[in-house]
Amino acid sequence: MEQKIQQPQQKKITKRSIINFCQGVAITLFLLTSALIIFLIIAYCTSRKPLTSYAIVFDAGSSHTEMFVYYWPADKSDGLGTTSAVNQYFVCPLSSVTYVDSERPTEITKLKAISDFEQHANLLASYFRPCLEQAMSRIPSDRHKFSPVFLGATAGMRLSLLHNATRAKNVLESIREVFSNSPFQFVVNRQVRILTGMEEAIDGWITTNILLEKFTKLHAKNKRKRSPNEFDPNMVGVLDLGGASTQVTFTHLNNIDNEPIPDDFTTNITLFDTVYSPYAHSYLCWGKNEALKRYRARLLNAALNTGRNYFATAKNLHIRDPCLANGTNDTVTVNSLFRSPCTANEKQRYLTYTNKTSFKFIGSGNAAQCRQAILNLFDAKRNDRTVNCTYKQDYCTFDDTFQPKLPEDIKFIALSGYYYVFNNLAHGMKKPDEFTAERYHYRDFQQEEIDRRLINV
C-alpha cells in the first residue's frame, strides 16, 4: 500500500524537476540571446560610426610658431582614398622660451621662432612640449600612432640657411628628433622641412580661393572648359605679408601681346580637373620685420654719411626716424640689425663709419617723410646703376623682379601682416572719396595712440 502511495509522489517530483529544468534552460537561452542581440547592436552601431583621423601641423614662421590639429573621417576605401571635409580641431600657439647667458646674466633672450634656436637647439624640446602634450590629451590615445605630425618652415628658416646652413639644418634635425620621440606618426624626414618661396605663395593662393569657395563653385556648376589663354575672373589674387617675406600670387592673361612668364615665376596646379598656372613669387627680405631692418639700416647709414664728423666724436648715436611715433625712442644693437642676410650690404657700409655697438632711433612722427623713405626703399635697386633689371621695363617690378601685367578685373585678398597691422593702425582713419588718389589720409600719431592700436598687431 505504501509503495503505491510513493509512486505518484515520485512522479510529481520528477515532473516538477523537468519543468524547473526546462524553465532554467529557457531563461538561460533568453539571456544569452538578449546578450547576443545587444552585442550585435553595439557592434553594428560601432561599425556604422567611422573612426576619425587626425593630423598635426606646425606652421613655423619667422616670428612665431603655431600648431594646428585637423580631423576628418578615417579612410574606409581599402586604400583607394576618399574625398571628405577636413576640419580644424584646435590651435595651440607656441610660447617663447627664455634663454639667459651664464656669462651675461643680465641679457635675457626670448626665443620665439625656430630660427631663433640656431645656437640653442637643445631647448627645442621644451619649446614644443606644451603643445604636443595638449595634442596628446585631446587626440584619443588609440589614434596617436595613426596621426602624422608635420612642420613647414617659411622665410625665417630660408634666411637661416643663408646665414648659417649648418646651424639651420641642425635645428631641423633637432625638431625631427622631438617628433620621433612623441607618440605621433613620424616616419620620413620630409615631414619637417623648409618650404620654398613658390610653395608658400601657391599654398596661400589655393587656401584663400578654397575658403572663398572659388574652386567648388566652378566644379559644382560644371562650367565650360576654359582656354589656356583665357583669364579666369573667378580666382582672386593673394598678397601675403609675413615677417621675413611677402608673397604675390594671381592668375593672369597669357596671350601673344604679353611677355611669356619665366619658369621661376609660375607652376601648374590641377584642381577639380582644371589646370591653373598662376604667377607666384616670394620676395625674401620684404616681410614686415626684415623690411623694417632694411629701412632702419639705410636710415642709419644715411645719417652717418651726412653727419660723419659729428657721429665720429659723439658719445651716443641718435638717429631721427620719421616712421617712429613722435616723442618715442628705440635702442637697437648692431647685432640685432645687421645679423640678418637682408642687411648684409648695409652692414659693410656701417662698419666704414663707426664701430659703436648700439644706437638709438628718436621718433619724429612725420608721415610724409616716412612714406617717402619707404618708397625709396622700394626703388633702391632701380636707383643703383650697378644693378640692371633683366626684363622689359613694363614687366619689371620692385626688387628687379618679373611680374606680368595685372588683369583689369582682378581682385586681391591681403593676408597676415596686411590685416593685423591695417586693422589696428588704420582703424578710425578718414576714408576719402573713391576717386581720389589717396584712399586713406596718413596721420602723425602720438605714442599713446600707437600703443593703443598696437595691442593686437
UniProtKB/TrEMBL annotation:
Gene3D superfamilies: 3.30.420.40, Exopolyphosphatase. Domain 2
Listed InterPro entries: GDA1_CD39_NTPase
Domain of life of the organism encoding this protein: Eukaryota
UniProt GO BP: nucleoside diphosphate catabolic process
Membrane spanning stretches: 21-44
Keywords, sorted A to Z: ATP-binding, Hydrolase, Membrane, Nucleotide-binding, Transmembrane, Transmembrane helix
GO molecular function list: ATP binding; GDP phosphatase activity; ribonucleoside triphosphate phosphatase activity; UDP phosphatase activity
GO cellular component: plasma membrane
List of residues binding ATP: G243, A244, S245, T246, Q247
Active site: E200
Pfam families associated with the record: GDA1_CD39
Family note: Belongs to the GDA1/CD39 NTPase family.
Protein name: Uncharacterized protein
Species: Rotaria magnacalcarata
Species lineage: Eukaryota, Metazoa, Spiralia, Gnathifera, Rotifera
